[in-house]
Specification:
alpha/beta; globular; Gyrase A, domain 2
Length: 593
């Protein structure tokens, strides 16, 4: 039992002995160290129910609270908080535990649980933009957080390889071949990035033509292409007369080859960000299953939750639940995103039999998911109960408009990666402490830390503004700053050479004590961050640890003190905690800076 749990159990016992009735006692870590290492508002909770002064109740609890060698002091402050301060004995035990226990960071809260976490979800035939990069980074942090608690995680990626966006791209591509006087064979000779960007330009051409609604022939051709491409994956679809035209144009081979380009390009980005997916799902694989699920549950069949309407099949969402009506099979007989999403839910469960399924998408998809999950809850309450959907806000640059690949205002994920790396390289060169070889080896790592930390330190659901100058700074609340703290620890330990590290029982000065107080909270903060899917909580903790360490370093002469061996032990465990925390966030460390 950890100390937080121990304090909680003691409060429960005291509360019962005093005759106080309370549903849930909360013990939390205060944001201000002057308010103790742990704090509880139990007195205010009780006071509210019994109509008494919370300060009187807090003092009553304080008087009855048992002595604990791990707690140095317990105090009551207005309006009724009870604060607990760790003893030096406990802090030194943490120091020894971090150093000597190889399983110190291991938590087993979720051991035996299987999670599938779906994230990134880019669409082939469109550019991988910074929204996809954000979802990739947040999703990977979710996976690592629950893994840190002992869960088994399947990383999944659902990629949209069918739909109007594909038809618009191929239509635009055919027009661009004419405009640019090149052939598909000539395009194939280009670099992968150039090919993918050419597809992105083709998509914008097709989208703008379709969106303009003036060119009826273009709209007709795009709809034909869409149906034809769906038919490549759903044999049950009726063959149309115009198929001959697209077969003569060799659209089938073109489609599959271009899809492969995009998927290969995405893999390059995943490798760069450090993500390795276990399962890939394609929308094209869900089409037939989605059609079957919906058709088997039309009114009069199965669960009877879908209804035919004007040639389509719809699901009428309950307005009282904030839901609206959505089409699951369109008038052409094609499965919509909704039908394919239902199929994906069943496919995931059939393949993986998970305990929890987590999905991260942009918040603009939230209304859509609400309807899908409502339908799923009627088809399979068991599967629906295991789902959890997180939405995120927009990712922007300062003063930039909302990102939209449809109107050509897209910000590419790879561009952000490259620009951030370039910004870091420039800073490193200006410092004069790096040679060219070192820069090429570490600038990408530091740049990635800047992006990942900037994304993760903001609460999931809020908009993110990425500022190159602020994010890549080695000072302040940034990824590079945390890497610098870790590298400084390593530098001190390296400079100490053969000097032995002493984890013995020493009297703590104020700076050493504050550093140990910070270190002692790591596992609780990690647990809280993981259970609430809040990587920003862990970011805040690591930044506070970094600041506390730098205050310690500036005020304590580690290598010049008579107590150097013990002080080095503090440096050593700080580096271990920082490294573990950064790894959970998906941020690689740099040994020297």
């Amino acid at each position: 039992m950890d100390i937080k749990e121990s304090v909680l159990r003691s409060l429960e016992k005291v509360s019962n002995n005093l005759g106080f009735s309370i549903n849930e006692i909360k013990v939390e870590i205060p944001s201000d160290f002057t308010h103790g290492d742990l704090t509880s508002n139990i007195a205010m909770q009780v006071a509210k129910s019994v109509g008494r002064n919370p300060m009187d109740i807090a003092n009553e609890i304080l008087s009855a609270f048992p002595k604990d060698e791990n707690i140095e002091k317990v105090e009551v402050i207005k309006p009724g908080f009870i604060n607990f301060f760790f003893s030096q004995k406990y802090l030194l035990s943490v120091l020894n535990d971090v150093n000597s226990n190889t399983e110190y960071f291991k938590l087993d809260v979720l051991t035996g649980k299987k999670y599938i976490i779906e994230y990134t979800d880019p669409n082939p035939f469109k550019i991988f933009h910074i929204g996809h990069l954000y979802t990739n980074i947040v999703g990977e942090s979710f996976a690592r957080l629950v893994e840190a608690l002992g869960a088994s995680v399947v990383r999944a990626n659902y990629q949209g390889d069918v739909g109007l966006h594909v038809a618009k791209t191929i239509w635009g591509l055919l027009k661009m071949f004419e405009r640019d006087s090149i052939s598909f064979e000539e395009l194939k000779e280009r670099d992968l990035v150039d090919r993918v960007r050419y597809l992105g330009d083709a998509y914008m051409l097709g989208f703008n033509m379709y969106d303009d609604e003036k060119d009826k022939i273009a709209i007709k051709e795009i709809k034909e292409l869409n149906y034809y491409i769906f038919s490549l994956h759903i044999p049950s679809l009726e063959r149309k007369e115009y198929f001959n035209k697209y077969e003569q144009l060799n659209i089938k081979d073109m489609y599959f080859e271009e899809r492969d380009w995009c998927l290969e390009y995405f893999e390059r980005i995943y490798a760069r960000t450090g993500t390795k997916f276990d399962n890939y799902f394609l929308e094209s694989e869900m089409g037939q299953k989605g059609l079957d699920i919906v058709k088997e549950n039309i009114v009069g069949k199965g669960k009877g939750i879908f209804k035919e309407s004007e040639g389509s099949v719809i699901y009428k969402g309950d307005p009282n639940k904030g839901l609206h009506t959505r089409v699951f099979i369109n008038s052409e007989g094609l499965p919509t995103y909704e039908a394919k999403e239902l199929a994906l839910a069943f496919k995931k469960y059939e393949d993986i039999h998970f305990d929890h399924s987590v999905i991260i998408t942009a918040n603009e998809q939230t209304p859509y998911f609400k309807v899908v999950f409502d339908a799923l809850s009627q088809l399979s309450p068991e599967i629906a109960s295991k789902y959890l959907h997180f939405d995120h806000g927009m990712v922007k640059l300062p003063n930039a408009e909302k990102m939209s690949s449809r109107k050509g205002k897209i910000i590419e994920g790879e561009w952000l990666l490259n620009e951030t790396k370039t910004t870091v390289e420039k800073s490193m060169l200006e410092s004069g402490r790096w040679d060219g070889q070192d820069i090429s080896q570490v600038s990408d790592t530091i740049g990635l830390s800047a992006i990942k930390y900037s994304f993760l330190k903001v609460s999931v659901g809020k908009d993110v503004v990425f500022d190159f100058s602020k994010a890549t700074s080695f000072d302040g609340d940034t990824g590079p700053y945390l890497l610098y703290v870790y590298a400084r620890c390593n530098s001190i330990l390296s400079e100490a050479g053969d000097l032995k590290v002493d984890f013995g029982n020493k009297e703590l000065d104020v700076y050493s004590k504050e550093l140990l107080r910070s270190i002692s909270k790591y596992k609780s903060m990690l647990l809280s961050s993981a259970l609430s899917y809040s990587p920003n909580t862990l970011c805040t903790y690591l930044f506070d640890l970094g600041k506390t360490f730098n205050t310690f370093y500036q005020n304590v002469k580690v290598l010049e003190s008579d107590n150097s061996a013990f002080l080095l032990s503090l440096v050593s465990v700080t580096s271990k905690v920082m490294k573990h925390g950064l790894n959970v966030l998906g941020i690689n460390i740099v040994e020297r800076m």
